């Protein structure tokens, strides 16, 4: 399925927004766009919900015909246990995570031990954990970790744009991770010259207008055939005003959905 998530409404749920969106608001806007899956990713407020609050959120999503996914950072056992419980309450069958957090940077061996201890419970619950490709850990190391753990409920959240910052070619990342992909973050990007032509800025653009060969990703990963959800994200910088930025964010949501649906 093609979906939206909290990163699709990044500016609209930020503290800068004059009418800050709640999760229910984002679910309703997603439903208005005909979306069937929504990923609550790196959204700290969801951790404050009680079990009954999580169930109420699931009921809202169910009423709108939207399946939920979760996203967090870290692989510490206690943290993964918490998110598994949350995923169970929300009916989410996929959770995206990253190896590192702001305060924890385990070695690959430490991450492997943590994952091996946690994943049997994930299998019992029928929930997949997808580790995202990003610049702090090479895609080669990430694939090696997934292969070392060798658990059917562990895979990769593919976001080729992130790895560009580590000078990894998006096609190489796609090829390397394809057998293990369980989730896709869909965003395009481009380089533009900075003022005075001193260096470049790497930032987001609407899907199909930048440097990411999305047709190649679809050809190699085959997300629809494999039942892998594609979640739209943005690297949308703040414009001249928050109002203009929010308007553009909504425009990108609509255009990116149209782009993916045309494939």
From TrEMBL:
Task: Please provide, alphabetically and separated by semicolons, the GO molecular function terms listed in this UniProt record.
Answer: isomerase activity
Q: Does Metal-binding count among this protein's keywords?
A: no
Q: What is the lineage of its organism?
A: Bacteria, Bacillati, Actinomycetota, Actinomycetes, Micrococcales
| Name listed for the protein in its UniProt record | Sugar phosphate isomerase/epimerase
Q: Which UniProt keywords apply?
A: Carbohydrate metabolism, Isomerase
InterPro entries membership: IolE/XylAMocC-like (IPR050312), Xyl_isomerase-like_sf (IPR036237), Xyl_isomerase-like_TIM-brl (IPR013022)
Query: What range(s) does the Xylose isomerase-like TIM barrel domain occupy?
Result: 29-237
């Amino acid at each position: 399925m093609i979906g939206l998530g909290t990163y699709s409404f990044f500016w609209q749920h930020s503290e800068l927004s004059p009418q800050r969106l709640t999760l229910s608001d984002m679910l309703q806007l997603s439903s208005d766009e005909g979306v069937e899956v929504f990923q609550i990713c790196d959204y700290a407020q969801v951790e404050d919900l009680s079990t009954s609050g999580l169930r109420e959120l699931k009921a809202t999503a169910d009423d709108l015909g939207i399946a939920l996914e979760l996203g967090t950072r870290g692989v510490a056992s206690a943290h993964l246990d918490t998110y598994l419980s949350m995923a169970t309450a929300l009916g989410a069958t996929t959770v995206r995570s990253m190896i590192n957090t702001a305060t924890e940077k385990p070695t690959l061996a430490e991450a492997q031990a943590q994952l091996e201890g946690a994943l049997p419970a994930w299998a019992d619950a029928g929930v997949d954990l997808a580790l995202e490709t990003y610049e702090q850990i090479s895609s080669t190391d990430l694939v090696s970790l997934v292969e070392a753990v060798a658990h059917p409920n562990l895979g990769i959240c593919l976001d080729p744009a992130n790895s560009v910052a580590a000078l990894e070619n998006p096609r190489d990342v796609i090829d390397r991770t394809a057998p293990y992909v369980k989730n896709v973050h869909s965003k395009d990007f481009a380089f533009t010259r900075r003022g005075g032509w001193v260096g470049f800025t790497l930032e987001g653009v609407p899907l199909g207008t930048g440097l990411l060969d999305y047709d190649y990703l679809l050809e190699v990963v085959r997300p629809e055939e494999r039942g892998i959800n594609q979640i739209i994200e943005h690297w949308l910088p703040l414009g001249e005003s928050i109002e203009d930025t929010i308007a553009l964010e909504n425009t990108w949501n609509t255009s990116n959905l149209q782009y993916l649906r045309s494939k």
